[in-house]
Every structure is written in C-alpha cells, then in structure tokens.
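Write out this protein's structure.
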Amino acid sequence: MTTPAISKRSKPKQERAHLTYERLLDVAGALLDEVGIGRISTNMICARAELTPPALYRYFDGKYAVLEALGRRLMARQNIVLEHWVARQFEHGVDALRDGIEELQRETAAVTQSEPGAV
C-alpha cells in the first residue's frame, strides 16, 4: 500500500487564513495525541476545529498532508532552537559546543513537548 501524494499547496498569506491554517494544525496535533495516526481523519479535524471540510481542503489534500505539515512545523521550531543555541555557543569555540549539547537536547525536548501531537 502506498501513501497518497502530499500536497504542495502554498501556505496562507492573509492573517485570517494563517490563523485558520494554524488552528487546523493545532487541532490535528491534539487529536493525534488522543486517537493516534490510524484513527485521525480530516472529518474529525474539521469537527473539532468547528470548520467545514472545504476549509481544510483549501490548505491540505488530506490527512497525510496535515500530518506532514505538523512534522514540518515541529522541525522548523526545533531548527530555531538549534540556530539560537549555536549562535550562543559559537563564539566560545568547539569545546563550548561539545559541552553544551545537553542544553541543546533539553531545549529541543521542551519545544517538542510543547507542540501538539509531537510526542
């Protein structure tokens, strides 16, 4: 069985559309925690977000596109943590980078735990 192709739709540009997009991701993440990847559905996401299916399909081709967007959002937030950590440590040399790895792991774990559906 193959996974359906992931949507290449562009992210929303207007503030209201961006808020709707983020709301869908937040709801999907919460549902992912509650029911798991096998049971989550686009209809379930829409019902919990109090949006119609056309609102979801404006941004995503389906369930797997929503899940991909959740993963990408998490990775973007983790990358911000990494970039800030490197900037703080870089001027102190390689030893500071090596010695600060545990700090980076704690910060990355905190971001991961704060993201709906990430754990």
